Amino acid sequence: MEEYCHEIFLRVVNFLFQGYADSKDTLGNCILNLSETTSEKGESILPRTTRLRAALRLLFSKKQLVRSVGLKHLSFHLLNEEGANLKRPHLHGSVLSSISNLFVIDRAIELKLDDKTVSVFKVETVEKLYDVLISDAVDLVLRKSAAEQLAIILEDTKMHGIVKKLGMIERILAYLNDCVHVDGKLMESIVLPCLTLLRKLVYADPAVRLSLAQQSSLLLSLFRASLIFQNDPAVLTETTVLLCLLLFDEVARAEMWADGKTGNDTGLPVFSLPVAVVKRYHLPVRITGHHVVSPNTVVVPLSSEYLTMKPVSDMLKMSWNLSWYHGIENLLQLINYEKEAERFLDSLKLSSEDIFILKITHTNYGLQDCLNSIIQAISHRDVRAALTRLSFYVVNDRLSLKCNSGSCGAILKSFVWQKAINRFLQVLPASVEDEKLLVDVLRFLNKLLREQRSSLESNHLKWILKSLLKNKPKSLLGLLVRPESQVRDEIDEIQTAVRQQLDKELIRLFNTLLFSSMSVTDREGLELAGSFRTELALKLLHCLRLTDALRFYGLPSLERTLGGMVHVTALPGWSTYSAEVEPVTICKRYLTGLLEVISSFYVEWGGNAMSFMGKGVTKSTVLCLLHLSHEMTAQAKDMDWVSLWSLPYDNSEEQVLSQLGLAWLVPLWVDRDPEVRFTALGIGSALTSLEVGCIALAESCQNISGGLWGTVINILLDQSECSMVRREAAFILQNLLVIPLPTVDMKDCIWQGPCVRDEESGLSQTGKPALKALLYHCQFYEQVKQMVKHCYLGCYMFDLNSSKEDNLIIEKGGITDFDDSLNLWKASSSQSHSSHSQSTSETMILSMSPTLGTVTELQATVPTNPISFIPETVVDRLMAQGQSETTTTESPSQHDSPMSAALSKQWAVVTPALLSAVCNLLHNLLVVTPEDTGIALQQAHLLTALSSLVSANLVERCILELKAPLGHPCHIEHVKAQVLLLLQYLSSVSRLLKSCLLVDSQLVSQDEVLKPLLGNAFMILANRSKDGLDTELTSVLHETWVDFFNLLATLLWKSGQISFPSVTEALANHCTAIIDNICDCIHLSNTYPALCMTSLQFLSVLLNEEGRRQIQDKENTCQNPSISFLLDHIEGCQASVTQLTALIIQICERKSSKDVLKEAAANALLSLLAVSKNAQKSALEVDLINTCIENMKHIHVQLNLDSLKAGKAQKKKEDNLNKQLRCSMQLLRNCLFQNEECKMAALKAHLVPVLHSLWPWFLMDDSSMQIALHLLCVYTANYPAGCTSLCWASGGQSSSLPSARSAAGSSLMHNVLKLASQLSNDNSPVQQVVFCLLSNLALSHDCKGIIQKSNFLQNFLSLSLPKGSNKNPGNVSTLWLKLLLNISFGEEGQQMIMKINGFLDQIVEMCKYKHKSSQHLALLILHNICFSTTNKPKILANDKAIAVLSGCLESDSCDVQRIGAASFWALLHNYQKAKVTLKNPSIRRIIDEAYSLAKKTIPQPEENELHAYYLKCLENIVQLLDC
Range with the lowest mean pLDDT among 339-348, 1186-1195, 1376-1385? Predict the structure, then answer.
């Protein structure tokens, strides 16, 4: 079929094909792939709209997995839709991962419309209702009602043409688009009737269906509406029905091919589908199906001749017998089939061959028969035949792609197969024939274990391990090491071949057992596995035959031995399970043997150019050494083991034993095999994780051009080198930078660092100057920028543009491997969760907790724990992160060859793993030379490139793919590895950026760095970790969260004022998801405390910045919604905040006083309560107020008891109790802040009596006193009942209820006044808070009475005021004025303060000070007392007071002018005697001039009301004086 015809054909029948879509067979997968879209170009056989329709149609499938694939395909269209960021809902991972059943409607509806010939509705009615519907001036409730009435009217199909002419369809589509817009919540109320209208129009008119079905925007809008209203069954049903009508439009419009169908049918066109479609989809409507059998089917009549054909007769015969005996099991159990089958026709009887075929093909019977044959065998031949049959079953499983449930391995688990194999594992072979049989047994066992490697049952594994360890030394382990006499006797070639094959199968078995033992978790299994590893390690070590020269050994045998040693040494702790030999001793023996292999085969032959050592031997030896370096790091912590790695080199000519040191590593660094280079550099990385290793390696490389530093930097910056090699070079550099470098040339210093020499001047530099020169010379930062540009983020890569030079290299044996992600290297389950160094050791200079704010906060730490890895099999390639796609095979000495020149023009693949290592290296450079590195990063724009390289969208897409795993398991592993690498890269970048913030916040605060950083950070933090991710991926995701939380907290801490608006804007897009994830982090407080701690620290810093913003910007002029708004008013956030508050309170209520999480939780809770009313409400519901007050009571009792004891321990305990007390009071303070309900709860819980009982302890601790007074300030603010509660006597008992007014000096109010009197002339923080408290209390009638009786106000007259009006009267005076101002707000208070002798003169004197704050307060007090009739004669009699008030009218300050005018008006009101004083010519002149000027003045718009009040005051003054 031609391409065009094929495309048309697929379009027409795609809906039929999709009914057969399935993820479990090839055809089904091909059908699924037709709707897949992976790029913007959307290259596919089908157009993009057709693929969108196909993806939506998959959501109606009856198969859950198919619906999941449909969601995956649909996500591309949703994310790449035009204006997707402006539409609802936000499509984060958790939204799409949980809606695969969205269109599965329980009750299908029936579509019916009325097609009567005469309509009962008038056209005018329809038009009026339509006008109401589309009118923007009409309330939405009325418009909704109009739409509902129109929906009833449209039951009559005669009205459809009228509304279509009016443009109803276009109007409904516009409303639907408005609803899914981010600001479209208002339109939600009319969506249901509009969808009903559209559904009826679409159902009745195939032409409308055809038109709308091709509109991608409509289909996506309907899907988005379904997501928005997924909890509303009515709306969801309407959207589902509409999508069904539009998506199955092609088949409904197709001819039904019914016999006798005429074209004169005038009724409604029936929406009918073939039965094949109805059966395969979940359809939301009841549909009349047609064509149970297609009329195009060619029916061939059955001929009787077919029964005579042998295949047909055989099928009939087999089916008859299986049916007669009810299954194959009953048939095979017959003892005498011939007798039983006598009743059958001869044509229905099974032959002996048929019976034999049934026995063989029935897996259970065949396997059991094989096992019985082995047990009952009397010769080797019978056993070998049975083993061969067993092997065929295993092979058949692989060929038939059987799943685990039906495989022979799964069936064997139900049999006692160990009994059949056990004797061959217990008895050693005594002859060549025995050895041949054992080879066959081991070969089958290897096949079986390899198939069950990932699911081998623990008891089976323990059985094999016990068999191997029980009969030492006469076990299979002993076969690895034969006596020298046996080796010399192996003259027969057959015997030699058999024993080589036996060795091979033994090593293969042991390697498989090593891999399977990684999954063991019980104590017995772990002990057996450990003993097996150590015992096998000792046997393999013996196999190296260290007594003879290694170069004369057979390479296959040596390669097998080394391959086994690779597997043994890959697991941590492999040397620790021997009762006879110490772990360090085993490591030393291994090191000696492996170094001898390297020396004999590699170093003495001048590297790989002359050595004949096999590639596998080299690779295995170096990999063993890498594993050994990790083991020695763990087992030889207290000894200098690095010196043991130095290789002695005997120069026979000079007869002088010289030390080659670690220089033997250098040839391996430039080996022709990239995997050898990678592993050898990994050894260097492990050795340099210790300071002594750095020094030893640097000394060994002194004779190399460029030294250690130059060599490693060249490897790192080599563009044609593969990423895994460059990554290890980065680790070495990272480790070298941990040791402090001298800033000047110091000859006596052991560690000189890099050394550079100027050839022209002959001068040399070391230490930091040399490092700067070296980095400048090699253009390090520019090269790193090029790495970022060439980084490949995909899961797979193919070289589609291979040049002729590349082809030439490949033809000559070049290596074209590449590493798409961390694939074959699997970490041991017992390893640390750290992901920072996945293959070798690295040392990171970690930034400490940000408390000092200087560069000195960055300190070097000890090397990280080494991490070992294990490849799956010995024959697997040593793959690691970043293996290059194009790697030269030339020797390092052939730099001038044309082939090398061709390679130098190429860029090898740069992987995220390499860039992660480079980020860690940049971190250490930033610590060593902060200023220079910061400038270089800024000039090269490296931080911008690194932070914007990986988009969180890419990570989210990959995670979505993992949550719906429908592809091949290998592909899923690759995608998972890709996600791991991307997350680890993001972690590395975040740690680097955090270090940059600590050095210079300006490096990160720029928009080009900050915006992509925040976008990625919050998208990653919004990803729900518990939704379908495995343990490993969840662990790495959590580590990434830790780094992002740390970075964001540091960002807000160092540059909060600059970055907070951007952080708020980015957070607003993911607020609910992030709060939910923080809740998840708190749930993990026991298993992952670091994650819980960092999330709480971030929350605390974020909310602190929000509180600071609220203080600085009370009018909330910021464009973006504030954090408080998000927490309290965003739908969905409120429930999350409630949950978050409850969880944090649970952490705070832990009993342990030394719990660091408790302190972090308290800080976060304090900040949360301060900015969120929702959090306060939640705290009230979980009874936080009562809990805190009860805790304060308990602390009071404990303090009283401990006060009777003495000693330093008691003092420390007292300090701890005071700390808990302060925390409880702070929580109460923030919980009560501007919340009357909480204050009522505190009043009922007797807060004031508790504080009263603790007052003596507060007097001994200023910090506690200050917090207690703060608490009382918040409690009494705008809460009269709270103020009154301070006046009641408590008798010192926190539990007693207030029953009478206080006796003299017995209330908390008296204690507060006494404290304020003692501090009246002090300027301490306590004094400021106590006066703030008194200012609140002064508004209460009861408190005002106690203040008056206590003569406390007399202290105001003792204030020492500075001489001269230009001076500041001081903070103490300001505190007094604020208190007096609050007292003067009531007439009782106005009279009270005027009774103080000398008060008026004092306040008038303070009105003369030019200090703005003090003057205004004093003038306001004078203004207030003017309102009291009792006070007016005294004020009018005071010439200084009148002079001050008249002077106010001449002031330049509008506020002062208003105070003066209002005061004069108050004095004149209802007091005739005031006219006499104010009619004084000088005062009257001032009043008239002020009035005249006020009438001419045109105020600013914002001061209109105040100016009008001022003018009104002056008008009333003039009128009163004139009358």
Answer: 339-348
Contact 82, 42 (CB under 8 A): no
DSSP 741-809: PPSS--TT-S----EEE-TTT--EEEHHHHHHHHHHHTTHHHHHHHHHHTB--SS----SS--HHHHHH
The residue type at 1440: K
Which residue stretches of 1069-1129 are H helix? 1071-1083, 1089-1112, 1123-1129
**Which residue in 931, 750, 912, 940 sits closest to 858, CA to CA?**
931
User: Per-residue pLDDT for 1393 more than 70?
Assistant: yes
Collapsed DSSP state (helix, strand, coil) of residue 967: coil
Token pair 């978050």 is found at 1140
260-264, 494-498, 1099-1103, 1165-1169: the lowest-pLDDT one: 260-264
Out of 637-651, 899-913, 1403-1417, least confident range = 899-913
With a CB cutoff of 8 Å and minimum separation 6, the contacts of 1212 are none
Backbone angles phi, psi at 661, to 5 degrees: 70, -140
pLDDT, tens digit, for every residue of 1194-1252? 999 999 888 887 766 777 888 888 999 999 999 999 999 999 999 999 999 999 999 99
Residue showing tokens 């004779």:
703
Buried b (16+ CB within 10 A) or exposed e, 623-641: bbbbbbbbbbbbbbeeeeb
Question: What is residue 1115's predicted lDDT score, i.e. its pLDDT?
Answer: 52
Rounded to two decimals, what is the model's pTM? 0.71
Three-class DSSP category at 525? helix
Q: Side-chain half-sphere of 635: how many Cα atoms within 13 Å?
A: 19
Q: How far are the Cα atoms of 467, 469, 479, 506, 607 from residue 473, in angstroms, in the given order?
A: 12, 8, 9, 15, 39
Contact 140, 184 (CB under 8 A): no
- CA distance readout (Å), 118 to 114, 156, 1262, 1512: 10, 9, 92, 75
Q: Which one, of 785, 689, 699, lies nearest residue 738 by Cα?
A: 689
pLDDT tens digit sequence for 89-103: 887 666 676 788 888
Backbone dihedral region of 327: left (phi > 0), alpha (psi from -120 to 50 degrees) or beta?
left
In this structure, how many other beta carbons lie within 10 angstroms of the beta carbon of residue 403?
Answer: 10
pLDDT at 717: 94
DSSP one-letter string for 886-929: SB--S-TT-TTSHHHHHHHT--PPBPHHHHHHHHHHHHHHHHHS
- The secondary structure of 936-950, three-state, reads HHHHCCHHHHHHCCC
**For residue 286, how many other CB atoms are within 10 A of its CB?**
12
Contact (Cβ atoms closer than 8 angstroms) between residue 1521 and residue 1471: no
Q: What is the pLDDT of residue 550?
A: 47
Cα separation of 85 and 1070, whole Å? 13
The two tokens of residue 914 are 């390499």
For 1289-1321, write each residue's pLDDT tens digit: 754 444 343 333 444 458 899 999 999 988 766
Distance CA 1356, CA 50 (A): 86
Output the six-digit token pair for 863.
Answer: 């090397």
For 771-788, how does the pLDDT look when each residue is reduced to its tens digit (9 = 90+)? 999 999 999 999 999 999
pLDDT band, residue 39 (cuts 50/70/90)? low
Q: Rounded to whole angstroms, how far apart are CA atoms 1176 and 1234?
A: 10
* 8 A C-beta contact, residue 469 and residue 535: yes
